[in-house]
Amino acid sequence: xxxxxxxxxxxxxxxxxxxAAVAANADxxxxxxxxxxxxxxxxxxxxxxxxxxxxARFNTxxxxxxxxxxxxxxxxxxxxxxxxxxxxIYTAADAGTGSSAESNILGFEVEPASGKLTQLNQVGAxxxxxxxxxxxxxxxxxxxxxxxxxxxxxxxVRPDGHLGVVASTQKDYGTGPHPRQKMPEPHGVAVDxxxxxxxxxxxxxxxxxxxxxxxxxxxxxxxxxPYEAVPPGSGPRHLIFSPDGRFLxxxxxxxxxxxxxxxxxxNSDKPIxxxxxxxxxxxxxxxxxxxxFTNAKN
Length: 298
Known about the structure:
It is a single chain. Strands 1-2-3-4-5 form a 5-stranded antiparallel beta sheet, with no helix packed on it. Strands 18, 19, 20, 21 and 24 form a 5-stranded antiparallel beta sheet that branches. It has a 4-stranded antiparallel beta sheet with strand order 6-7-8-9, with no helix packed on it. The chain folds into 2 domains: 1-171, YVTN repeat-like/Quinoprotein amine dehydrogenase (Methylamine Dehydrogenase, Chain H); 177-298, YVTN repeat-like/Quinoprotein amine dehydrogenase (Methylamine Dehydrogenase, Chain H), CATH 2.130.10. It has strands at residues 2-9, 14-21, 31-37, 52-59, 69-73, 79-82, 88-93, 102-110, 117-128, 130-136, 141-146, 151-156, 168-171, 186-191, 197-202, 207-214, 219-229, 236-241, 247-252, 257-263, 272-273, 276-278, 285-287, 291-292. It is an all-beta fold. The model is unreliable at 1-15, 19-27 and 281-294 (pLDDT under 50). It is built from no helices and 24 strands. The termini are far apart. A hairpin with an 8-residue loop joins strand 20 and strand 21.
């Protein structure tokens, strides 16, 4: 049974990790498998470990993590996400011919005792350089943010965990003032708590795109207000919703900020409000402060 997800960042490799509860017997209830997706190269141009998905044992009592061991060799396994009910994980990966080709999305079944991964199937991501995934448990849909082609796609997930082909696609648009913002570049995707909206953070466009989602047909379409603009040159990267679903938190890369937004899925005209909370149903808005983060390069 898969239980929780965590994200790890390495010095030389970008690591996306999914932790799975895989107790083989009563004596091992404190142990979980952690799966780590990797990409990148050695900083000095020397030898490097193979790219792919690694597995390590994590002891929840002591906090100890065993040395990672390669499970599956894959090029640019950039992001992993777990199935909420099945012992299955999904990963984005390159096709093996570089990021200019359509990315692949792969599903793997977890063998709890050994941690071994068995591939279920593989489908096209519907775009280039897939960089982030989000799973909607209500509709059994996997969403993919395709960084290289500037779009988001919806893939159906069958009851047994196998992936279906792309059911819907939407393209982002816009650019920013920074030299790195020459085209739309989706970096993150998230499903709102009502399961009726999908939000995409676009690094290149300086926008949070808002798409309405029909879970029955797995169709995406632009919301009435299709995006929320962030300050020029911010470079939005990832966002998450608060546990109560009333707020969302956006992390920007270029400006190194954590920005807070009000979210109300009942307001179909404009569910997202810039850095604001309301204590009287929208009659008066109060603007929040936001926190600054230090850029790692500095």
